Backbone:
């Protein structure tokens, strides 16, 4: 692939924990990430985050807000993605593996105890390699109890 693709990732939090999936398939297999996937033609990022979350973990998102973007270059596979990060403000249901061909495991994690290895776009977001650079800080602070 000699051009960037567009991915959309949905950050879903509950009680200062984030929902992560362990990926299956050739792109990032075995790494931990948020639900997400490719932006389809004529789809907006909010719709993509809602669709991918429902397809992968069975949660219905009712409000999704833009958080930031990362520029993700997978040097080992020659892939390049621009990932649009969305934050789910509300959701309903309990997470489950709804796409067994894409999701190996699912769990809630404390921000200070994330599993390893992380999917490159999530690493980039956490390491503030994003626009805006404080996107990850905003999501972390938003989930903390007052």
Residues:
């Amino acid at each position: 692939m000699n051009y960037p693709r567009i991915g959309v990732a949905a950050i879903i939090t509950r009680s200062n924990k984030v929902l992560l999936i362990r990926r299956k398939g050739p792109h990032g297999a075995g790494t931990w990430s948020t639900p997400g996937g490719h932006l389809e033609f004529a789809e907006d990022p909010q719709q993509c985050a809602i669709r991918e979350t429902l397809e992968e973990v069975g949660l219905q998102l009712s409000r999704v807000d833009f958080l930031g973007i990362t520029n993700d270059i997978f040097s080992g596979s020659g892939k390049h993605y621009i990932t649009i990060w969305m934050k789910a403000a509300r959701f309903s249901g309990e997470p489950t593996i709804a796409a067994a061909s894409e999701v190996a495991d699912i769990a809630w994690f404390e921000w200070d105890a994330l599993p390893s290895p992380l999917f490159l776009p999530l690493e980039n977001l956490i390491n503030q390699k994003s626009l805006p650079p404080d996107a990850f800080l905003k999501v972390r602070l938003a989930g903390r109890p007052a």
About this structure: The radius of gyration is 14 Å. The domain at 5-141 is CATH 3.90.79.10 (Nucleoside Triphosphate Pyrophosphohydrolase). The chain has one domain: 5-141. Residues 64 and 101 are 25 Å apart (CA to CA).
